[in-house]
Every structure is written in C-alpha cells, then in structure tokens.
Amino acid sequence: MTEPTPTEPTPSGPTPSAHTRPPFATTPRGPIEPTGEPAIVPPARWDAIVADLADRGVSGTPELVSAHAVTWNNGALGCPSPGVSYTQALVDGMRVVVSVDATTYDYRFGTSDTPRLCTR
Q1: Mean pLDDT over residues 62-74, rounded?
Q2: Which of 25, 24, 22, 27 is nearest to 89 (CA)?
Q3: Before 22, cis peptide (omega within 30)?
Q4: Span 61-72, average pLDDT
Q5: Beta bridge partners of 106
Q6: Which of 118, 102, 12 is nearest to 65 (CA)?
Q7: Is the pLDDT of residue 51 over 80?
Q8: Which terminus of the chain is less hemmed in, N or C, by CB atoms within 10 Å?
Q9: Contact partners, residue 79, CB within 8 Å, separation at least 6
Q10: Of all helices (H) and strands (E), which one includes residue 52?
C-alpha cells in the first residue's frame, strides 16, 4: 500500500449521495401583505416618496393610503427584479402605499430612507 502523495486527495469517508443529503429548504416569496402594525410614515421617508414621484414626472399631491411596518424575507423587499441578487436575510422596513390622481404607488423601504417603487 502506498501513502497518498500531496496531489492525491486524502480519503475522508464516503461521499454523500443524493439519497443521503437533506433536501434544500426554500423560503416563500413575500411578504405580499403587511406583517406588522399600521405605522406612521417618518418625515424623511415621506419627503423621499414625494421627491421620487416628482422625479418620475408625477404631479399632484400624494395621499397616504396605508403604511405598515414590515419584516421582509430578504433585500428584495417583497418586490424582486428578475436577474438581481439580494441579501438573504430578514430586513425590517416599511410598506407605504400612496395615491395621486387615482393612481396608486406602492413604495417599499428597508432600513434606509431610500424608497423603492414596486411596479409588479
């Protein structure tokens, strides 16, 4: 019997097969609905929404439809974009829905005051 050389792998036991490995756990998308209590929109976040709407060419005064504290499943904030990678950790944030001239806008916040408009 020969000793393994540095270029040969040292045996470390049997290689697990597909039948012995546990299945991968997946998490559902979401949340779609708020997971927290109704919340008051902080002034910095409201100002950010108003500025974002103005940047998009939306005129008119936004009216608050709803605001809820949310714990998102990941950095997509419940609104993933195809082909984009996101932090895979719980993110405390907020969902704010506003209306301007009968059009509804669904904004998502993570831990910062930067709004993300969800268009799906």
Answers
A1: 95
A2: 27
A3: no
A4: 95
A5: 97, 118
A6: 102
A7: yes
A8: N
A9: 106, 108, 116, 118, 119, 120
A10: helix 43-55
- Kindly provide the b/e burial profile for residues 82-91, where b requires at least 16 CB atoms within 10 angstroms of the residue's own CB: eeeeeeeeeb
How far apart (Å, rounded) are the C-alpha atoms in residues 63 and 66?
Answer: 9
Higher pLDDT pick, 2 / 109: 109
Distance of CA 81 to the CA centre of its chain: 10
Where are the extended beta strands (E) located within the chain?
A: 63-72, 91-100, 103-109, 116-118
Greater model confidence, 66 or 7: 66
Beta bridge mates, 92: 71
Q: Coil, strand, or helix at residue 39? A: coil
| Six-digit token string for 70 | 């949310």
Lookup: tokens for 102:
């009968």
**Any long-range contacts for 19-28 (C-beta under 8 Å, 24+ apart)?**
27/73, 27/74, 28/73
Residue 61's contacts (CB-CB under 8 Å, 6 or more residues apart) are 100
**Rounded CA separation 66/37 (Å):** 11
